[in-house]
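ok here's Ferredoxin, seq below lol
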Amino acid sequence: MWAKAPVGDVTEMAERTAADRRGFLADGLRPVECTACGTCVLVKKSSRHQMSIQWQTPTGSCPEYAAQNKPGALLDTCSKLRASIESLVAEGLLEVPDG
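and the structure came out like this:
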């Protein structure tokens, strides 16, 4: 059976929801520079297999993306940027929660 939350809890719930959203979108992001072209992105590794990348510049600043001439949202990660990220992980400079 469902019970409605007391009215006083609505504001607290909204604040916790906003904090969760900020945490999901921004916490743990670290700047990473591609060793091939120098493009800087923000990266978060949530597990060994999952990563989030937030571009700080247009994806056209990456030669590999620019050569494909497609919107960045339709492309997988640049292979050289992925190698740069994985190199930092291997060196222990980019944390992966599950090791």
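fwiw Residues 29-90 form one domain. kinda neat tbh
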